Amino acid sequence: MKLQLLDAIGEITEARTAAGLWQQGQGCSLTGLSGASKTVFLAALDRLLPEQGSLVFLLSGRDDIREYRRTLNCFYSDLLMQELYPVDLPLVQADSRNREIQAGRVAAMRILQGEERGIVFVTAEALLQKLPIPQKVLGSGVVVTLGQQLEQQELLERLIELGYERTTQVDAIGQFCLRGDILDIFPINSQYPARIEWFDDTIDAMRSFDLDNQRSIESLSAVKIVPLQIESGEDFSASVFDYLSASTRLVVDEPSRLFELLQKLYTESSGYADELWSPAELEGFCAQKRAWVVAALGHSRLQLFKDINVPVRSVAPYNRNLELLTGDLQGWLADGQVPVVMMSSDIKARGLADSLQSRNLNAAFVKEGALLRPGRITVISGELTAGFRFWNENWLLLTENDIFGMQKKRRLHTKNSGAQLQYFSEIKAGDYVVHSVHGIGRYIGVENVLVDGVHRDYLLLAYAGDDKLYVPVEQVGMLHKYVGNEGQAPRLSKMGGADWKRVQSKARAAITELAEELLRLYAQRKIVPGHAFAEDTEWQRDFEERFPYEETPDQLKAIAEIKADMEKPEPMDRLLCGDVGYGKTEVAIRAAFKAVMDGKQVAVMVPTTVLAQQHFMTFKERMQPFGVKVEMVSRFCTPREQKRILNDLENGQVDVLIGTHRLLQQDVLFPDLGLLVIDEEQRFGVAQKEKIKRWKTGVDVLTLSATPIPRTLHLALVNGRDMSVIESPPEERLPVETYVAEYNPGMIKEALEREMRRGGRIYYVHNRVLGLENIAADLRSLVPGINIRIAHGQMSEDMLEDAMIAFYEGSCDVLLSTSIIENGLDVPLANTIIIDGAENFGLSQLYQMRGRVGRSSRLAYAYFVYKRNRALSEVAEKRLQAIRDFTELGAGFKIAMRDLEIRGAGNLLGAQQHGHIAGVGFAAYCDMLERTIRKLKDGVEDGIPEPDPVLEISVDGYIPDDYIADPRYKLELYRRFAGLDYGEKDDLLDEIIDRFGEPPEEVEVLWRVACLRALCRLLHIRGISVKPGELRITFAENAAIDPTALMQLISEQQQYMNFKSGVQAQLIFRTVKLKTDSLTWLEKNLPRLAFD
């Protein structure tokens, strides 16, 4: 139906004229168009042309991209829409790894040159910059084809030349790794990574694979690999116009505004004139191209194009006045007009058609058939932002936005969160590990040992007193990587287990105490009666519809969980965790509105006055149209105002009260408190937390936290506390361009001036209060006239908040502060942060501070600066490497896990548990906590898990170095073998072949033994022993054996075997009589003993 709308516009005289000119090789100037009508008209022109081509839009800024993208998505949802991101002008000694930006540039260049059809948006900033000549980007890569003769080393050297990074496993764009005859690579121009397999020097097979599970997706006949990063130089002599193919539809949007901005940016960047095109040059290039130049009111630029005035006008908004809408629709029908109404979904379209029919209007929801039918109101689904009508046509378009107000914006930026980090579970030579029996040791590596004529791999551990322990690889599950205190090597345990048992015993006692406290609070909430809120009202649904963005799946899940809790008769106590700026506030607003709709009051408690002010404005803006009274108590209120607000609160006239710990004072009285929302509870003091605890009794509580929680701890705590997690990124959010560099005044000056040029603001963080004034003086000498405010924790609260409010309101350019800005301010126009002395901050701190920028659709920059000529410690180097590497959206969990390794786990559960986490290691601690909570909660003694089956079978089963050389991959596979589920045995073998190639006999034997162990686990077989002349199977007391099948097996083999009954029954066979080797016989006969 939406395409019929384009066809209807294509019938308009002006559209046919413009399309005719294009086919004659001429562009035109289109005036009168604005908003959605502009984009829809251009889409109609594109549809009129016989030859398919890409669309390229030259726009002033990213706000224009957002508007175009939302409308184009209605008609081109199957096409890639890509911005040509501008690049930074040269920055001295800065190292950035933002491959998403680089990949976007390459994707845009491919579309520009016609290699694939798509839509490219080019802002003024990107248009100015000189580009590499097209051949350098798209012609200088490598194409690998099936059956091609290509030496492996030759390709590896070429990939390094192209800027690709060699790693041990491909888990990000721009990486490659080699395993024997298999090369994995993620080309910057591809949606999926590729797996290339050799036979001798011939490309034998190629396939794409999934980054999350490393499994193949589909076969490929060719893989194109374009350069990852192209250095500037003499080949940077092209403009965007040099890339355009003959079929490309070029659109120049509002040229007067565009060229005025180009001139401004060019003047401000005069120091880099050699790397930029002048606006005059760009105007000349543009005049030589066939283009559609679009301007609402005409323009004085690009006069070479023929002018076509399109007679179109917008429609007046109805603001939910259905009576006025009904009258207009009746009038239009009477005049012979055909109204078309577009709603954002089929459900809404059907609902509106029914509503109009109930008002005696001829309306129909149409998915097929004619769009324009005289005498009928046609209702369709689609996501245009505004309606319009052409003066000389007998039809008009209305949208949901015209009738009901703001329509939701689609979250157009989607990002696969990817596989969770392997770092925490990976064990490398030299790491400290925890053995479940012997305690903390140092991992030396994998050693192949010949025992009784059989080669086997063992994990070698070093313990106190130079003792060594050889751990069979099938027992790898008994090892965990040790995570404890930052910079402190743990004390090695003594072998034998007595030393380790003492440490475990102390930890277990503390864990039991913690678990009992968690569960006591949990149980208390279940006993104390709470308020069961009613199900959602029509107002609630209406309120939520007005949220201007489409909710992420995680947001919807969290909202559903919170509402379900609120509708139960016991008090809610739920923790909502989410990455920085991921939409936790909207979830809290909906919970608050639900409480108010049920006649209850809401308290929102935040740690700072600035946050209180921000929440107050957000809550008020969302709730005021529904008559909800939102107030705030803070130092911004005069004593008289506070007295009035608290009096209204006590009289039940205030629905939502927002404030800091001021809410805990005795004069704050809620007659009917139903919900308490606490933002960043960990930032309140001990005394304040005690008061909050008393508040919680009988009241629903929702706690918000931006601190990423490691998943293992989440799983351990989930039985003791209700928790929701938001991990989906917000809409149209770009990853922050991240640089790690030595301090350089030129780089700082450029970063400050660039942000100020675009009207933005800058955070400058330095964590020594004494140095702030000197830094302020340095910055003023670098950029004369810059307006700087200083903020740190030693200032009075009034002065601190005055500085923050000044920054928030835009009366200063730079907020120079300590890490006090780590949590709190949400300033969309602040899109550059410079962290001085970055080596002195913790990784989570660095991540949280980087999260202060990039909270709008603008590209943001973060500079992590360390002292010149200073050798970084290993810990500091790891932190800076991690913050540089993890630039993608939603990296909070990855950062949390890496920080756990670097920093240790001490603060996750408070100081009381710190020593015990350090004593046993984080993984063992979480395991003990989870078991203790489960035991106390369910009343079931978890006890010692059933021991793994012991298989004593003398076979050569190991992973040879010439099959897998990397010890981390070996260890990963040994873990997979040790924990194999019998039902997944074939999948594992397929994955091994897919990732590493056909396995040698030793690996195949290893897999067969692992399958046998998995089957024994399933049947509760305690062990299998194969000795010369004898095969012995020992059953556990609770063996899950089919007795009929067992009797059948015994009857078949009775002359060659003995059966011993008892607590652990045994079958003993004389192997000399078996017709095959023991392993094959077991593979054939053991599955028979399972129940069908």
Automatic annotation (TrEMBL):
Its main location: cytoplasm. One of its GO terms (cellular component) is cytoplasm. Keywords: ATP-binding, Cytoplasm, DNA damage, DNA repair, DNA-binding, Helicase, Hydrolase, Nucleotide-binding. GO terms for molecular function: ATP binding; damaged DNA binding; DNA helicase activity; hydrolase activity. Coiled coil: none annotated. InterPro entries: CarD-like/TRCF_RID, CarD-like/TRCF_RID_sf, DEAD/DEAH_box_helicase_dom, Helicase_ATP-bd, Helicase_C-like, Mfd, P-loop_NTPase, RecG/Mfd. Residues 747-901 form the Helicase C-terminal domain. Residues 565-726 form the Helicase ATP-binding domain. It is an enzyme of class 3 (hydrolase). The keyword Metal-binding does not apply. The keyword Transferase does not apply. One of its GO terms (biological process) is regulation of DNA-templated transcription. Its EC number is 3.6.4.-. Pfam families: CarD_TRCF_RID, DEAD, Helicase_C, TRCF, UvrB_inter. It is found in: Cytoplasm. Gene3D superfamilies: 2.40.10.170, 3.40.50.11180, P-loop containing nucleotide triphosphate hydrolases (3.40.50.300), Penicillin-binding protein 1b domain (3.30.2060.10), Transcription-repair-coupling factor, D7 domain (3.90.1150.50). SMART domains: CarD_TRCF, DEXDc, HELICc, TRCF. Couples transcription and DNA repair by recognizing RNA polymerase (RNAP) stalled at DNA lesions. Mediates ATP-dependent release of RNAP and its truncated transcript from the DNA, and recruitment of nucleotide excision repair machinery to the damaged site. In the N-terminal section; belongs to the UvrB family. In the C-terminal section; belongs to the helicase family. RecG subfamily. This is Transcription-repair-coupling factor. It comes from Phascolarctobacterium faecium.
